[in-house]
Amino acid sequence: MIREPAFAGQFYEANPQKLRAQIEICFKGKLGPKSMPGRQASPIIAAVIPHAGYVYSGQCAAHAYKAIAESGKPDTIVLLCPSHTGMGPSVSVYPDGKWKTPLGEVPVDSEFVNKMLAYSKKASPDEIAHRSEHAIEVHLPFLQYLFKDFKIVPICMKGIKVLEEANDIVSGILNAAYELKRKVLVIASSDFTHYGESFMYTPYKANQIKKVEALDKKAIGFIEKFREIDLLKHVVQNNATICGYAPITAAIIYARSMKSKSVRLLKYYTSAEITGDSKNFVAYASMVFDKNEGKAKKGK
Fold first, then answer.
1. What is the CA radius of gyration of the chain?
2. Which domain holds residue 17?
3. Is the pTM here over 0.85, yes or no?
4. Does 157 map to a domain?
5. Which of 3, 20, 33, 105 has its CA 20 to 30 A from that of 227?
């Protein structure tokens, strides 16, 4: 089963050479890390990375990908994304086959998927939710640019019973990683506040960038302190338009289970800095969870 690219030529370049050049611009641009990945640094076990078009969020994403590249290649990358289409079950795990981009094909770690699903009560094998979903696809060219011979586990979360589903899927990830002895990286795919008339559910009036930044800063603070329950309360109480709050919740739980004690905000900006449009914009953040040296553990 091949999952064909649905957003090549829209969110990122469809031509392989132009796509590689576009990724390099993301690393070297004025809002990016301003350099390509260098020598090995702190091990990373999880990350929060935006998923908009590369023109908008690519430079923000490059900060996390630079840190990930310097952390070393994982065996399996679990990509958690929100559902923008509403298709499929509450937690949809792409079961097997490959995902194709202009840079080639990436295999799904079907052995990991099967192990994980054996421990999960909430997740379902499903490819329908992933057909027209961009929030995992846009990460793959970055990963392909950085690594060879890695496998992925794509998971789409609707965020219906967030804590139950996040704890359930993390248990499956931990058990599968433990039994298969996989080095796993978890990526929570999420943009932050969506603002303006283009996003009818936005809680603020026009031209309130500082207000949006304050709202996001509060959410980021909860992530930095591993306080997923407070993050979810924040989303509800403020009608916060963080699209990937469910994947972020799972990433926090996973990182804490792996004894991570450090979360770093690498970059935050809004698309207004790219477009100049302060009436309609989206905020982006790149964050990484550092690994605490120690042995892997089984899930509960």
1. 18
2. 2-290
3. yes
4. yes
5. 33
